Amino acid sequence: MRNWVQPLVGTPEERAVKLRDPAARAAMKRDVEASAPGGIINCGRMSVLEVVHERNYRYEGMTIREIAEMTGQHPLDAFLDLALDEGLETEFMIPPSSTEDTLKLREATIKDPYAHISQSDGGAHTRYLTMSNWPVFWLSFWVRDREIVSLEEAHYKISALPAWLADFRDRGILRVGAWADIMVYNQEELGYVYDKPVFANDFPGGERRLIQKPTGLRNIIVNGAVTFEGNDCTGALPGKLLRSYDMVG
Hints:
Elements lengths: L11 H8 L2 H13 L12 E4 L13 H8 L3 H11 L5 E3 L6 H12 L17 E2 L3 H12 L5 H15 L16 E4 L5 E2 L5 E6 L3 E5 L2 E2 L1 E6 L2 E5 L2 E2 L10 H5 L1
Parallel strand pairs: 3-7
Antiparallel strand pairs: 1-2, 4-9, 5-8, 6-7, 9-10, 10-11
Helix pairs in contact: 3-4
């Protein structure tokens, strides 16, 4: 996807100019056509989550392929034209694949004792979204519903194992002397408040971002202090920034 790099670099205005360039689009299309199915753009699964302008409301919920068929365009043109019409602010999404064959393949990978599953970049995108829902999905879908590992193994994979791999001392475990970072929950009630992520203007300055909230959580405890009761923030801020010398000290 080397031909996608430069068109996506720069300010929104600079990117818009490059994304309208026929030569750039032709090169990007070659990358799409050369990629494996479901690669750069999975036109049959990527859909429009939310648009900016009322004139584009009709596209919400539609896949890129459906829009391309409606407009008589190449899928890439349909995708880019809609995004450009909205100042590159359209929200797109790709739902997770859930075919039984795919799930069984994932099960085999997840159950491997060397598999590390708890990786998330949610903290890197707080300004735009807070949808780090994989712990709830892991404990509800994979552990409760499909029972691929025991609850003890599940917590080891999302707490003790990653802490050990990152060389975090006295974290990821419950024992005397360790930092008391705890999630208290009812596994049978674990799920999501919304059917799909929603927009909230809850960031400083009233900025809009996508959020998802869980069901079934009782408390979040950081360094022994309760920071959340259900989905309500207590205002306690007991955490601190960890630096390299904190991790190994």
